[in-house]
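Postdoc handover notes: sequence design on the structure in folder B. Input C-alpha cells:
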C-alpha cells in the first residue's frame, strides 16, 4: 500500500512538473528540456530522487532567464 501511494504521489508531482515545462516551453523555446519525449521521465526521476534523498544534483531546476 505504501509503495502504491508513493508512486501515485510521485506521478502527481511529476505531472505538475510536466505542466510547468509546457508553460515554459510556450513562453520560451529554450525550455529546461528540449525533447518532448523525455519530459515525463526526467520529471519522474527528479521527483523520485528529491522525495527519497536530498537529490543527486545531476538535474537541477532553473531557467535561461
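Designed sequence:
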Amino acid at each position: 500500500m505504501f509503495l502504491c501511494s508513493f508512486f501515485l504521489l510521485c506521478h502527481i508531482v511529476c505531472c505538475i512538473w510536466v505542466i510547468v515545462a509546457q508553460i515554459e516551453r510556450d513562453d520560451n523555446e529554450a525550455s529546461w528540456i528540449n525533447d518532448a519525449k523525455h519530459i515525463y521521465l526526467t520529471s519522474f526521476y527528479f521527483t523520485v530522487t528529491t522525495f527519497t534523498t536530498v537529490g543527486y544534483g545531476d538535474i537541477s531546476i532553473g531557467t535561461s532567464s
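Context for whoever picks this up: The CA atoms of residues 9 and 23 lie 21 Å apart. Don't rerun without checking with the PI first.
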